[in-house]
């Protein structure tokens, strides 16, 4: 087998860096919005000069949930593909730049309408709340741009396979392609509701909108969206972290199988977000909840593989006893420490997800701030800390610099600050949610009703956590700016792990895209055809648009 | 193919690492999930 290239081609590095730049700009602005939210919700502060809480909340959700994640992921995957399967062709790279600009122009357009107060519809933009058409058109451009970039990756991967017949593709390339297939299939849903329902309706071409259909198409996209965020973090865990700690990947085929299972079972499950919606029959909710629970399998496979990687490494270093291997891990290396803390937080995060998806328990937590606590563990801690950990080698690798000891120490502090802040903020969100506190609410005291006053201590703890987190945002920005512009020049490794057993032929069998995409389509048709026909045929008259802010 | 499978078996038999810490960890993880789920379930029952 040909030795894989050690470095990302410098032209591809530019493309990846452009994406990371937008991602971290979104983090700065969105993080500031988050701070304001926690302060308002403590009941002790008000926003100045009539700025709406919901404008701020929309800014936060869109910038962090949609922009930070999508840009970081596409940039990271371009780098990963270039590193493991060689420099992009000029055509693929140009396509990647077209995708980048489409996404960036779309983001700027949506941001303009959000910040001018014409689109305070939150990042889920549920109808019948109606934003300015420019907001939806901007979002559509972001999605189309991401498709263009996805095709650039597919073309590059196809070219590699043609010149390497009979070989399994490098793990990171396989995983990037899986994630982009997932993204492409699921974002068709959000594109459909935006282009065929929301844009004509917001332009006044149609008067009314089928609310349930648009929410269903949104959640057909919305759940796989969270796996689109999570899978790149898993790429780092499976394919990078073993190398960072000096060990080997526990199993290459297990990693690939887990990714395929995520691809299959993360799409036909959107109803678990709509369990309390009338208009969808309980039977189809039940079917999708069962499919949702299938995702526990690859999740636990991943947990097992991580423990096994760490324990194997610790034992190879002479660890003894049940947990002696823990002491052998490189705790002072931020490239390991930040993602590791992310993994730890995924334990309560994933557990919360199982609770959310259980129909009865969903009635306890639905639309409470428990849900917000939940996804600040999943995306805003597990995923984000892993992305931070990856940035500590990816950015200097791409800019031809090295991370200094001082910056590494700051990165360790950043991780601890984030973990402490999130424990306060997310922990109190979980408890307040169980006590009934709603999410997405500018009100905190509800006219001093006794039940709402019960929530206030938690909402103050939430504000304390939010303030600590904001310090974390400042720290990560300092580190990122240092790594991009000021760190000493030098060579930084893009770590890629080797498998413990080198010739795993199962890997090749798992590269059967026709089969997987066929199964994905079949599962989607099973889970969605009948309920969507029902939603269209038995629809009420449809709703006019509302601008309640 | 058969040859490959035996080759894979052989490497496996050579060094099956002792992973009892992993076993304990996944059990603890499982108990945590069940405990949390049941706690919220009782909250649900309590509020019925
Ligand atoms: C300084 C750090 C952060 C703070 C203080 C913070 C705070 C908050 C608060 C208080 C809310 C909910 C308010 C409500 O429902 O009324 C919220 C919502 C949200 N946050 Fe954060 N957050 C932070 C970081 C993040 C990050 C890093 C992400 C994603 C990567 C994120 C994604 C979201 C999303 C998607 C929402 C939902 C918005 C909605 O319900 O429409 N947050 N955040
Ligand atoms: Cu979901």
From TrEMBL, chain A:
<keyword id="KW-0812">Transmembrane</keyword>
<protein>
    <submittedName>
        <fullName>Cytochrome C</fullName>
    </submittedName>
</protein>
<dbReference type="InterPro" id="IPR033943">
    <property type="entry name" value="Ba3-like_Oxidase_I"/>
</dbReference>
<dbReference type="InterPro" id="IPR023616">
    <property type="entry name" value="Cyt_c_oxase-like_su1_dom"/>
</dbReference>
<dbReference type="InterPro" id="IPR036927">
    <property type="entry name" value="Cyt_c_oxase-like_su1_sf"/>
</dbReference>
<dbReference type="GO" id="GO:0009060">
    <property type="term" value="P:aerobic respiration"/>
</dbReference>
<keyword id="KW-0408">Iron</keyword>
<dbReference type="InterPro" id="IPR023615">
    <property type="entry name" value="Cyt_c_Oxase_su1_BS"/>
</dbReference>
<keyword id="KW-0813">Transport</keyword>
<keyword id="KW-0472">Membrane</keyword>
<keyword id="KW-0349">Heme</keyword>
<dbReference type="GO" id="GO:0016020">
    <property type="term" value="C:membrane"/>
</dbReference>
<dbReference type="InterPro" id="IPR000883">
    <property type="entry name" value="Cyt_C_Oxase_1"/>
</dbReference>
<comment type="similarity">
    <text>Belongs to the heme-copper respiratory oxidase family.</text>
</comment>
<keyword id="KW-0479">Metal-binding</keyword>
<dbReference type="Pfam" id="PF00115">
    <property type="entry name" value="COX1"/>
</dbReference>
<dbReference type="GO" id="GO:0004129">
    <property type="term" value="F:cytochrome-c oxidase activity"/>
</dbReference>
<keyword id="KW-0679">Respiratory chain</keyword>
<keyword id="KW-0249">Electron transport</keyword>
<keyword id="KW-1133">Transmembrane helix</keyword>
<dbReference type="GO" id="GO:0020037">
    <property type="term" value="F:heme binding"/>
</dbReference>
From TrEMBL, chain B:
<dbReference type="Pfam" id="PF08113">
    <property type="entry name" value="CoxIIa"/>
</dbReference>
<protein>
    <submittedName>
        <fullName>Cytochrome c oxidase subunit 2A</fullName>
    </submittedName>
</protein>
<dbReference type="InterPro" id="IPR012538">
    <property type="entry name" value="Cyt_c_oxidase_su2a"/>
</dbReference>
């Amino acid at each position: 087998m040909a030795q894989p290239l050690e470095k990302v081609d410098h032209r591809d590095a530019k493309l990846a860096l452009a994406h990371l730049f937008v991602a971290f700009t979104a983090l700065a602005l969105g993080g500031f919005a988050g701070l304001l939210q926690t302060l308002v919700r403590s009941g002790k502060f008000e926003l100045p000069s009539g700025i709406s809480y919901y404008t701020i909340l929309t800014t936060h959700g869109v910038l962090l949930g949609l922009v930070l994640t999508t840009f970081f992921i596409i940039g990271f995957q371009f780098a990963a593909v270039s590193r493991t399967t060689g420099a992009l062709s000029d055509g693929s790279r140009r396509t990647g730049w077209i995708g980048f600009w489409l996404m960036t122009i779309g983001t700027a357009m949506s941001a303009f309408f959000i910040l001018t107060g014409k689109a305070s519809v939150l990042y889920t933009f549920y109808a019948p709340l109606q934003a300015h058409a420019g907001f939806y058109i901007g979002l559509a451009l972001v999605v189309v741009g991401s498709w263009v970039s996805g095709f650039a990756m597919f073309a590059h991967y196809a070219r590699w396979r043609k010149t390497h017949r009979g070989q399994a593709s490098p793990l990171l390339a396989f995983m990037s392609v899986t994630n982009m297939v997932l993204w492409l299939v699921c974002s068709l849903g959000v594109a459909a509701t935006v282009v065929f329902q929301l844009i004509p309706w917001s332009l006044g071409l149609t008067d009314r909108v089928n609310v349930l259909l648009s929410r269903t198409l949104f959640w057909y996209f919305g759940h796989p969206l969270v796996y689109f965020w999570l899978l790149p973090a898993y790429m780092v865990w499976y394919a990078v972290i073993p190398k960072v700690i000096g060990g080997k990947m526990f199993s290459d085929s297990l990693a690939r199988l887990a990714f395929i299972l995520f691809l299959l079972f993360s799409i036909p499950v959107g109803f678990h977000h709509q369990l309390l919606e009338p208009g969808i029959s309980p039977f189809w909710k039940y079917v999708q909840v069962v499919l949702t629970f299938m995702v526990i399998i690859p999740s636990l496979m991943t947990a097992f593989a991580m423990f096994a990687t760490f324990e194997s490494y610790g034992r190879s270093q002479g660890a003894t006893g049940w947990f002696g291997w823990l002491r052998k891990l490189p705790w002072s290396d931020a490239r390991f420490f930040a993602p590791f803390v992310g993994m730890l937080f995924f334990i309560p995060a994933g557990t919360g997800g199982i609770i959310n998806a259980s129909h009865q328990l969903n009635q306890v937590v639905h639309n409470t701030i428990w849900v917000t606590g939940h996804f600040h563990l999943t995306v805003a801690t597990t995923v984000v800390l892993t992305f931070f950990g990856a940035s500590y080698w990816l950015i200097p690798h791409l800019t031809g610099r090295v991370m200094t000891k001082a910056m590494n120490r700051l990165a360790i502090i950043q991780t601890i600050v984030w973990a402490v802040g999130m424990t306060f903020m997310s922990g109190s969100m979980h408890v307040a949610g169980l006590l009934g506190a709603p999410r997405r609410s500018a009100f905190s005291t509800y006219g001093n009703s006794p039940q709402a006053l019960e929530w206030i201590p938690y909402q103050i703890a939430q504000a304390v956590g939010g303030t600590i987190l904001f310090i974390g945002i400042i720290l990560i920005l300092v580190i990122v700016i240092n790594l991009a512009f000021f760190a000493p020049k030098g060579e930084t490794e893009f770590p890629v792990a080797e498998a413990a057993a080198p010739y795993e032929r199962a890997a090749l069998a798992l590269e059967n895209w026709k089969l997987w995409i066929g199964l994905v389509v079949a599962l989607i048709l099973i889970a969605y055809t009948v309920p969507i026909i029902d939603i269209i045929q038995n629809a009420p008259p449809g709703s006019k648009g509302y601008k309640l802010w | 193919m058969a040859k490959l499978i035996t080759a894979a078996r052989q490497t496996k038999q050579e060094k099956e690492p002792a992973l009892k810490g992993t076993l304990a960890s996944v059990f603890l993880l499982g108990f945590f999930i069940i405990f949390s789920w049941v706690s919220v379930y009782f909250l649900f029952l309590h509020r019925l």
